[in-house]
Amino acid sequence: MKHGLTAGSFRSVRQIAIDERESGSHAPGIIALGQPIRYFEMKQDQVFARMGGLVACASLWLAVALAQEPQPPAGGLSLQPSAGTPLPAPATVKVDLKTSLGDVVLAVETERAPVTAANFLRYVDQKRLDGAEFYRSMVVGDDGEHGLIQGGLRGNPKRALKPIAHEPTAVTGLSHVDGAVSMARAAPGTATADFFVVIGDLISLDAQPNGGDPGYAVFGHVAEGMDVVHAIFTQPRSPTAGQGVMRGQMLAVPVKILTARRVR
Predict the structure, then answer these.
(1) The whole model's pTM is what?
(2) CATH number for the domain including 119?
């Protein structure tokens, strides 16, 4: 992570959400970030420390799951892997987004984020994302190296499916790190087809512990094509498009998603 970031260089994202609400500028499917970005000059050990709550939740879930497994058969034969046997990687499904600037391949977390992953794959399988756009590029901080790009159907009622339940990072164990793919939404439980790709670590978008801010629902990561993500991120923005705090964040020429297909 680049150093030289200061608290003064970041605007409270919670205040952004308040401003959007007061100005009436919030649009369906547009991410309304709900908390400050608090990762300035965060060292790696601090990042891991802040992720400790997620690890603890995952460990608790695993302990409960293992306790419910059938007992080994008589005779001392164990069906459990030995301590030195690595666990298999969580299942993912790859999706190729062919854009007008190149391909972006996503690894969709069907095992760790089953609700959100299944929703995204429905849009892919029904070809509802064909012709969609990456339309927003939001820079966080002064260095220009952190932020997100947002794409999808922009709440198009003719193509959007029903909203899905919110699947927080505290449950999935995923996080808003560089390359993470997460759902755009208004209130929790309103996400449909719009999503965003994180550039640089923005773990303040994760669910907060003890029933705090529910955060946003990560459901995958970029497996290939981060160079294309950065190319979209640096496209010219319109100085006038967008309402309220989103003014100046909309791409002057949106980047087309030509097709979205599973990688066979």
Answers:
(1) 0.71
(2) 2.40.100.10
